[in-house]
Amino acid sequence: MYARQSIEPPLTHEEKKEEFMIMLKEIEPVKGAGGWEMEPRFTESQVLVAVASGQGRLLIGNRSCLLRQDRVYAVPPGETYGASADPAEGLGLFLLRFDVYRPDPASGEVLRVEPGDSLLLGRGEIPFSSAAGSAALCQTIHSLWQSADRLERFRAQMLFQELLYTTMKASGRTEEDSLSALERARDYMKTHYQHNLSIEQLTRLADISPKYFVDLFKKLMKRSFC
């Protein structure tokens, strides 16, 4: 007689995330005066870009976006990215390169996830809601990363995990969820049109920040909020 084998259902995307192990490989501060440009770079690792100071634009592949200090930006492996500073202000960035690993049950080894196999963060802009702020957290990570003390470098890895957790949690809000939040706010505006509604009231209803609300309104409704 043959032993009965149970067939396990395939893992969902969320279950696959739980198998991953993530390691910071490098954190690099870059900056330049007004008009400075960072030459396009090809990355084999995943990259998080955080704004340390100033203003400018980020180019990922052939897509350009405005850099903001309340956002972080995900660059997937196998992609080219660059940046340019605002002519009047200059720009400072933190570039955090990291790799994703997954245990192989068959061999017991820990293998690096190949580009395209898993994109934990997708690409582009992600709101960053931590009270500490991405720039301050990145500055602490960078300072610890430069230490010759292994324990301090381990702490840098721990803080990077916190940064990544906050980023991944924020990226879980899908555009459909955001649209639903905006629709609740829009319905409220229709039924209370006789009142002078503030952005603060509407953003509390939508459960998103005022700045994110205005940006999202313009992106999804194709017009400015006024």
Automatic annotation (TrEMBL):
Top-level taxon: Bacteria
HTH araC/xylS-type domain mapped to chain residues: 183-226
Keyword annotations of the record: DNA-binding, Transcription, Transcription regulation
Name under which the protein is recorded: HTH-type transcriptional activator Btr
Organism the protein comes from: Paenibacillus konkukensis
